[in-house]
Amino acid sequence: MAVAVDDIVPLTIFRVEAYGLWGTHDGQTGSVHVSDFTDAPPIDEDRIPRVGDTVPVRVFNVTPRTEVEYAWGRLVCDFAASLVLTKRPAEPIAAPDPALKAGPGR
User: Fold this and answer.
1) What is the pLDDT of residues 64-84, one digit of tens each?
2) What ranges make up the beta strands (E) of the chain?
3) Measured between alpha carbons, how far is 37 from 21 in angstroms, rounded to an integer?
């Protein structure tokens, strides 16, 4: 089943780098940037997930079958997620304020 924005899903980690990690859920690949590991920096090394760990993450962007090239190789990624956002209630995205105008002079 495809993930959706605001889903909290278990992510099984298969790669960890200094800037983020990748894991799978139901055959889909998700990424978590290091800034989404904790909202209380510095990040305690004992709290960084390791390969093989399964951690809850909240999906905040769905990008099905997006190919990304890294220094270590190519990866197809399906969603971006956060460890931090699992601790907060989902917040609906506010509709744009109609009083604001797009672009200068409009």
Assistant:
1) 888 888 777 888 899 999 888
2) 8-17, 20-25, 28-33, 54-70, 73-82
3) 9
The total domain count for the chain is 1
Nearest CA to 70 out of 103, 98, 29 is that of 29
What is the distance between the alpha carbons of residues 88 and 20, in angstroms, rounded to a whole number? 20
- The set of residues, in sequence order, having a beta carbon less than 8 Å from that of 42 and lying 6+ positions away, is none
Residues 83 and 36 sit within 8 Å (Cβ to Cβ): yes
Kindly state the tokens that stand for 100.
Answer: 């604001």
Q: Residues 4-53: pLDDT tens digits?
A: 999 999 999 999 988 889 999 999 999 998 878 777 767 777 778 899 99
Containing structural domain, residue 81: 8-87
Whether 101 is covered by a domain: the verdict is no
Supply the pTM of this predicted model: 0.75
